[in-house]
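Ticket #732: bound-state structure for dioxothiomolybdenum(VI) ion.
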Amino acid sequence: MTLQPRTAVGTPQSRVDGRLKVTGQARYAADHPTDGVLYAAVVDSSVGRGRVTSVDDSAARAHPGVLRVISHLNAPRLPYVDNPGSNNPAPNSRLRVFQDDRVRFFGQPVAVVVATTHEAAQQGARLVKVSYAAEQPVTDLATAPADEPTTYARGDADRALAAAPVRLDLTYRTARNHHNPMEPHATIARWDGDRLTVWDKTQWVVGGTQQELAAVFGIPQTSIRVISPFVGGAFGSGLRAWPHTTIAALAARETGRPVKLVLARRQLYFGTGFRPAYSYRLRAGSDRTGRLTAMTHEIRSETSRYETFTEAVLAPGQMLYSMPNVRQAYSTVPLDVNTPIWMRGPGYASAALVIESAMDELAHQLGIDPIELRKRNEPAADESSGQPFSTRRLRECYDVGAREFGWRRRTPKPASTRDGDWLIGTGMAAAVYDTARAPAQAHVRLNADGTALVQSATSDMGLGTYTSMPQVAADALGLTMDTVEFRLGDSLMPPTPPHGGSMTMASVGSAVQDGCDKVRRQAITLAVNDPRSPLRGINPDDIIVRKGRMHAKNDPTRGETYRQVLARNGRDHLEVIGSWAPPEQNRFSMYGYGAVFAEVAVDARLGLVRLRRMLGVYDAGRIVNPKLADSQALGGMVGGIGAALLEHTVTDPRDGRIVNANLADYLVPVNADIRDLRAIYLDGEDREADPLGVKGLAELVLVGVAPAIANAVFHATGRRIREFPITADALL
Ligand code: MOS
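RESOLUTION: The complex was predicted; output attached.
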């Protein structure tokens, strides 16, 4: 196919949906107006483990406006059939809503109150008296028994460690983190006979919500429509369906009315997932020049007792640095908690926090510059698979970053720079994230008026899908941005992978480009075969389209518009389903890379850490929209600042209660915590990854942030803190 000129891709377009969002016109899940809607409020268990012995709903049912109270005592049995191909757990290993009396974690839904107003439902939920036979929950990752580990080995790491002239043996602990999106999770469910329509906050209308409800109710997926045009942030919390979505649908079926269920902020902490806490022991060995000989990784992370959650925490230890000997063991530890889920930079962020902190320790111990140490351990190929890298420009990230950050001015000695009461330090870390792609489709329609409509069942949780897809479509169709509309978030649209794992641009973008290429070709074919067209008889490959006008590549005067050729041929529109799928087997190792630099000031008397500036340099392939890329990169840094210094979900071991389930006590970075953040993208593309040449950015930009800050804290203070977040008390 002809390569169209790129005029929209690569330009800093503003969000096309920005005005809708800032003027309150964007409709999020709970905003959809629904006639006759009822309101639901969930009653959460107030014990961390045990059994429900009674549910007294008499006071609740007597409350004005309350219509129904549903618990395991009166809920219908739900089929919970298998649902392959989704992010949701298999039926034999999952929580089943209101199907038994067991309490598996503090906050588990034990009943729902349905009422004519939100307030009545909330008050009704307070009036339900639930009695329990409580048991002692187990919530301590450090002491609870673990599942059988997932293992990996190459060489003989233990022998190589024993023989290494330089050795480290370090244990790190990372806190549980919660996504805390601005928009709370919410669902509106409406049954029309056997057909179910839901408006849901989700990152995957098809594989998340639609498949879950089909599995729970044992009905065909085609009987369920899921609508989700706007998502107010998710960071992974919408990658699978949670109990409240089932509860809304169940309550709607039981009452015969549409039901709206919005989780309270507090309920997000146990009603959706979280980034699991880790305990991670890393041993490393090197020679005296800093060449790594071995690493062992002993990793424990929390999961629930009723579902097993794992993430890609092993990959960085296998491929980020060159070394002959690696041994890894990754164990999940089942606790009396709700199930974790991926959170921005999943797995990689947790592994990089450990590995990149340890690399800094090794550099210090050897007296080698941290960048130089990393360069000495750059692999020539992916040592986990033997595959060549599609693109790996990590050295360039280091060099550009060092230059732009002013790394040369750094005095290596820790605690050597002061600014009044503040100790000043700089640190850096590498970032890496898998370039994921998956099959996707998009419907493309070119209208007789020369405008185009592109639709795909993907999502935009704030990353800019609404804007980036029209950029791709505009170029491939030869239209201007303002004549292309993109719609998403409806399970009736062509299917896509989850809006996660940084794969939307690569996967959906490539499907959009494919569909637009095909429709453009249809129009060109119509013209060259039309005796009345000035383009008649020209080779279609020699025709390009600009601003809706097809013309000969070598003779711009010879041409006509889409409108003209469609009108003359009596065509109302041209349309096609575009699709793209990655090859079944990768021949290349594909990752995005980055180098993150941080400068911190630590109050010498109070232990307060302030980030002064941060720079990230990224090898992420083609950047479709530099403005939205900055929005992602800076947002990723903010998340990493949180993980390094602030974010920590705290559980009370006595009863499994989350004690800081609110935004006053769960600290996230605010404007005062965020100073000078800057991102640079290496110019280029990855031709092996996908037709657009993108490698994905959203996850990558969180990875490496926390260790860069931790390394800067060490440089400022001479203190190594291996428990995250690094709080003031740890530095006193
Ligand atoms: Mo991202 S953790 O896949 O939303």
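RESOLUTION NOTES: The chain is about 25% helix and 25% strand.
TICKET STATUS: resolved
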